[in-house]
Amino acid sequence: MIDKNVIQRLKQTNISKDVKKTQERAHKLWKAASRNQKHAIEEDADVARATLYRVYNTGSISAKLTVPMAQHFDVDPDYLIGVTDEPGKCTEEKLEVFLKNLGYDHLFPFNSEGERGKNKAIEGLQNMDFEGISSNLDSIPTTDLDIEELNLLLQCLLLREKAGVKDAIDKASKLRTLLLS
């Protein structure tokens, strides 16, 4: 599903197409929700409970709230904003199309193949020869690096770790141990 970091980058402007439908649907779903669902929505959107109450009091809803509500209530995001009358199911593909239609294309750097595109990128990283790069990095004087450069190196290490590069997994593990000790 859509990551919390992506959700928090969404705007808080009203996207409801039918205020009355949004108001009724949000109220119905919110009242039927468990405490855990409510807390998860608040946390994902990084908003106060009062903001959520305003949705079903006014019928005004933002993309920042629509996405986590759709995910946690398992309903089509278009149902929440009043475009469709069928609650449907929430899928990652529907959410991506929904956000792209709102102009958030830049949040999805991978091609339309979705997960296959992500997997190809990870495969490419796994197949790269990092040995030559690693030996060149050893010659960089670490005392000359500023915070941005250190951050970039750390991000590269974590990316390689996620890609499953054995050397990066070992180094990231050692770094975590060192930093947490």
Average pLDDT figure:
82
Strand content: under 5%
- Overall spatial form: elongated
The total beta strand count reads 0
Structural class: mainly alpha
Q: Secondary-structure element order, as H and E? A: HHHHHHHHHHH
Largest sheet: number of strands, sense, barrel closure: none
Give a structural overview:
- By secondary structure, the protein is mainly α.
- It has two domains: 4-105, no CATH class; 115-180, no CATH class.
- Helices cover 64% and strands 0% of the residues.
- It has eleven helices and no strands.
- Helix 2 (19-32) packs across helix 4 and helix 10 packs across helix 11 (166-180).
- It is elongated, with a radius of gyration of 21 Å.
- The mean pLDDT is 82.
Features:
mainly alpha; 181 residues; single chain; 2 domains
Describe what is shown at a glance.
The chain is an all-alpha fold. The protein has helices spanning 4-7, 19-32, 35-45, 49-58, 63-73, 77-80, 92-101, 115-127, 131-137, 147-162, 166-180.
Layout of helices and strands:
Elements: H1 4-7, H2 19-32, H3 35-45, H4 49-58, H5 63-73, H6 77-80, H7 92-101, H8 115-127, H9 131-137, H10 147-162, H11 166-180
